[in-house]
Amino acid sequence: MKPQLFDTHCHLTWKESGDSAENQWREARESGVTSMTTIGIGLPDSLRARELSRSFEGVHATVGIHPNDLGPREELPTLLADLAAHARSGGWAGIGETGLDFYRDWCAADIQFEGLQAHLALASELGLPVVLHCRDAGKELLSELNNFNQPFSGVMHCFSDGPERLDDFLALGLHISFAGNLTYPNASPLRDAALRVPEERLLIETDAPFLAPQPVRGKRNRPSWVRHTFDALVELRKADPTELASSLYRNAETLFGCSKSAN
Which CATH number, 3.20.20.140, 1.10.10.10, 1.20.1280.170, 3.40.50.300, labels domain 5-256? Predict the structure, then answer.
C-alpha cells in the first residue's frame, strides 16, 4: 500500500490543466494523494478554490493575489480591500500566493511590495500561513520578511533559491516546499537544499498544471504526480518511505491547520 501524500500547492481551478478539478481530485485520491491545497492567485480564482474545498474531501483553499496580478496602482487600494474582506469571511487554509516576482515585469516592484505586506498583515491577523512565491527576488523577499514586525508562519512554495539562502528562510520559521523541478537533471543546487531542510519543515507540491516532474516532463502536471517528487526525496535523503510520508503529511496538516478527517 502506497503511503498517503499531501500536495501542498496546486491549481485545480485552472483551465490550463486540460481536465476537470473533479477528475484530477479523483485520480489523486486513487493514487494515495489524499489531501491537496488549491492555491488562489486572484479573487475570483480564490473563491472558486474555496468552493472546491467545500465540495471535495481533502481539498483545502487559500485566498490571495499573485504578485504578477496586482494590476495598476490606482486600482490597488480597492483590490487589497476586497482581498481583506474575502480573507476575513473564513473557510481558508492560508493566505496567498503572494511574494515577489522580478523574472517578469508585469507588475512594478513597489506595487508588489505593497501587495506582499498586505498579505502578510492578513496572515498575521487571521493566524493563517502565508504561501510565498519568489522568482529572481530572493534578496528582496528576505528583506521584506525580516522587516515585517508581526508574527507569521508560512511556506516558501516551489523553493528554487538553492542552498545559499535556505538558512535565511528557515531562520524565519518558514516551511520549505519542493516541486517537480527537484527531479530535473540540472537541479543539483536544489537537491543540495532539499538535503539540508529539517524534516519537520519539509513539504512537497506539484504546482500543477506547471512543472511536471522529469518522468512526465512536458505534460500538464497533475496532483497525483506529486509522488515523483516524493520518490526523489526518499532517494535523495535515503529515507524510509513510510516515515518520510508521515512527516510530510503531518507538516502540511500542522501548517494549514487541517487533518485527514477534516474538510
Answer: 3.20.20.140
Give tens-digit pLDDT for 87-100. 999 999 999 999 99
User: Any idea which residue has 483551465 for its cell?
Assistant: 15
Residue 241, preceding bond cis, omega within 30 degrees?
no
Bridge partners (DSSP) of residue 94 are: 62
End-to-end CA distance of the chain: 23
- At 77, the pLDDT band (50, 70, 90 cuts) reads very high
Torsions phi, psi of 35, nearest 5? -140, 150
Neighbouring-strand partners of residue 61: 38
Cell numbers placing 21:
478539478
Between CA 225 and CA 198 the distance in angstroms is 23
Q: Which is higher by pLDDT, 261 or 130?
A: 130
pTM for this predicted structure: 0.96
Whole-number Å distance between alpha carbons of 179 and 190: 10
